[in-house]
Every structure is written in C-alpha cells, then in structure tokens.
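2024-03-11 09:14:02 INFO worker-7 job=invfold-0412 stage=load source=structure_tokens
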C-alpha cells in the first residue's frame, strides 16, 4: 500500500498535490514527499521486510510510486555493509564499516534516485527527460530511461570521466559535452526545457530522486539491527543522499522502527570545491557559489548545491561536522581501502576515508564509536583520476625496480 499524502516545500512549507507533475515550489524551494506515517505504522512492519524484494523497493510503502507496474528497476539497493577491520586498525577505529554503493547498477548510488524518478515519470506520463550531471547521475538516468523506453537528454562537463560519457552514449542518450561545470550544464537545461518539452531531472529540482536515495538510510538501519551508527560519513556534492537519509531517519522513528538516536552526520567535500564546509565554518544557513571549483572527484565538483540548507541542517542538528580533504588525500585513502579491504572506491568514497583519519586524529571521533562510511561509486569509473597514482613504466624500468618477471 502506498502512503503518500502530498508534497511539501522545504523552504516555505506550502503544500502541493501529489500525482501531478512538479519541479520546484514557486518560492524556489525543493519539494519533499510526505506520507501518512500513522497509517503506515499500522499496516507496515519491520518483519514484513523479510518477504520483500532484495532491492530498495522492499521499502515501497514509503516510496512515491502508487502503481507497481510503473516501477523501473535494475536491481538497485541492498548494497553490502562491510566491516573493515584492517582499515580500521590502520586509522585507529575499532568499529568501522563501509556501505558500498559502487555495486549498484551503473556503478553508483545514483541508481537509487533515478530508479525512483524514472518510475514516477512513467507513472505521470512524462516521455522526455533532461539532466545536468557531473557524470554518475547521467549514466543512471540514461540506463533507467532506456529501460523505460523514454528519451534522455544529458549535459555534462567536457572533462567528465570517460566511463560516464561512453555509458550514456551506449544507453542511447542524447549527450552534449559542455565547456564548464555542472552549474553551466544546469543553465542550459533550464533555458531550453520549456521549448524542448523536457522534464528537468536536476538534483532536487524534482521531488523523487531524493526518495530513492533515502533508502540508504533504511538499509543501514536494517543491516545494523535497527540501531543507527554513532557517525556517518557522506561525500556531499549535491548532498541529496545525506538529506534523504536524514528524512528516512525521521520517518523510521515515526514508524516506531528506531528510537531518537541519530548519527553524527559528517559532510565531506574536496578542498578544491567546499561551499558547504565554508558555510558550516562561518555559521551560515546557505552556501555561496564556490569559484574556480576543481577536484578529481567529479561528484564533489558542485559549486552551489541547491539543497545546501538541508545538508547544513542535518549536520548541525546531529552534532556532526563538515570537512574538506585534498585530492591527494582522497586518492591515497581510496588506495588504502583497496589494499586493506579489497574495495576499489570512487575518489568520493576515498574522501570519506581521508576525513575519517583527520577526525580520529583530532579527537572529534573516538576509536570505539560505530562509524559508517558511504562509498558512493565504483573506482573503476575513475581510472583517469587513479592513474596519477600508478604511472605506467616500460619493461626495462620495471626490471630495474624488481617488478618484472622474466620467463625462463
């Protein structure tokens, strides 16, 4: 049973009717889906999940799709939560876990949001979609649009990882490479969408991607026996995953599934693009556009997140923090995760590992706290970034280094 009641503006609180096509509120605020939590509490239990699908759609009563026939799924969700003892020992954390979103379809957590958003497009009769993306969201939208038989129009920075560009083309998307950042791509979508008849699937400019991403919060609670961790690291570009999980925690408490405890929400950004960190340190409610944004972590190169105020609210209300790390630190930490645990993480996931090291060293986190790091994507999609750490050498150079085995 679906329990959606309405949509609500996160800025002004205005109520909007569900079942209709919406982007932003008239005031410019992102819309959030609201549910009849009292009814859901009476009809949906934690025990019922034992009979649900092994995907994020096991949480369908708290997702916006009203017709099962509308669901477009490629098997997203229920990603592994892995204890990382060797990595924890390296950094001095005795209860460290990694939620590996890199095993999702198209190799990132973006599959969750786009599965939900494309399903709602099917339900609402939308046929043409457009998205500005730093890479992984474009790949996911192209895949789910292909699965649904919808047209997708994608605008990405010209220097986007090659994997993302090739994926989108393979999925049949109309791809435009832009000389600029994701913000420049967003301006193109905004200026052309009405004339072209596109539905804008930009981050938080439609209400449903966040609903798919919030399932990361439901999953971590279920996987930890319905007790949330003490701290949660999340790489915050657009930050919608963190916003969604914060929403999920409130829903689960209303359902009676968890108590009032919340993890310290830790937003991680790159030193070359840290609008949220800067706003947090200055005590500001909104961020300012971050000029000359640069980072190898394409998902963190978001100079002005639309939902910055929601990220900052979650961080502050939870007693968490916002922290930036350098590209070198995130790549080296990503290699530590791979070497110690056999997980090849995206630079965004490596950024969280690097941030963990800093916060343990500073005393902000204690060694015995239960800590969960979110790796949001697969390292294989970022080979250009990691190649700077592993330059190729000639056979003669390898021989000098003792790295060449000569056959007899």
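2024-03-11 09:14:09 INFO worker-7 stage=emit residues=408
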């Amino acid at each position: 049973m679906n329990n959606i009641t309405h949509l609500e503006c996160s800025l002004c609180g205005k109520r909007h009717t569900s079942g209709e096509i919406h982007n932003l509120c008239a005031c410019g605020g992102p819309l959030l889906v609201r549910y009849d939590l009292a009814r859901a509490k009476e009809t949906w239990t934690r025990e019922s999940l034992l009979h649900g699908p092994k995907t994020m759609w096991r949480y369908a009563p708290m997702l916006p799709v009203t017709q099962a026939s509308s669901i477009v799924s490629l098997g997203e969700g229920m990603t592994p939560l892995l204890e990382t003892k060797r990595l924890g020992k390296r950094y001095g954390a005795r209860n460290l876990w990694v939620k590996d979103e890199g095993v999702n379809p198209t190799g990132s957590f973006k599959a969750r949001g786009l599965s939900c958003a494309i399903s709602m497009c099917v339900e609402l009769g939308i046929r043409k979609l457009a998205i500005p993306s730093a890479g992984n969201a474009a790949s996911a939208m192209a895949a789910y649009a292909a699965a649904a038989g919808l047209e997708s129009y994608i605008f990405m920075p010209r220097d986007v990882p090659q994997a993302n560009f090739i994926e989108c083309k393979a999925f049949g998307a109309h791809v435009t490479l832009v000389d600029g950042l994701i913000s420049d791509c967003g301006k193109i979508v905004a200026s052309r969408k009405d004339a072209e008849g596109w539905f804008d699937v930009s981050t938080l400019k439609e209400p449903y991607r966040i609903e798919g991403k919030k399932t990361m919060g439901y999953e971590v609670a279920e996987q930890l026996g319905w007790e949330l961790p003490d701290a949660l690291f999340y790489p915050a570009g657009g930050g919608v995953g963190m916003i969604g999980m914060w929403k999920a925690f409130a829903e689960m408490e209303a359902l009676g599934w968890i108590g009032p405890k919340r993890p310290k929400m830790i937003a991680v950004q790159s030193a070359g693009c840290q609008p949220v960190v800067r706003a947090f340190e200055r005590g500001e409610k909104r961020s300012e556009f971050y000029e000359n944004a640069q980072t190898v972590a394409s998902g963190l190169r978001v100079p002005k997140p639309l939902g910055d105020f929601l990220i900052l609210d979650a961080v502050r209300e939870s007693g968490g923090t916002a922290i930036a790390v350098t590209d070198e630190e995130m790549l080296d930490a990503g290699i530590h995760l791979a070497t110690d645990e056999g997980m090849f993480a995206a630079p965004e996931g490596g950024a969280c590992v690097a941030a963990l090291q800093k916060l343990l060293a500073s005393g902000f986190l204690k060694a015995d706290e239960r800590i969960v790091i979110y790796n949001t994507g697969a390292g294989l999609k970022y080979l250009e970034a990691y190649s700077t750490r592993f330059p190729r050498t000639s056979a003669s150079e390898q021989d000098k280094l003792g790295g060449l085995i000569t056959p007899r």
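2024-03-11 09:14:09 INFO worker-7 stage=report msg="Residues 183 and 235 are 18 Å apart (CA to CA)."
2024-03-11 09:14:10 INFO worker-7 job finished
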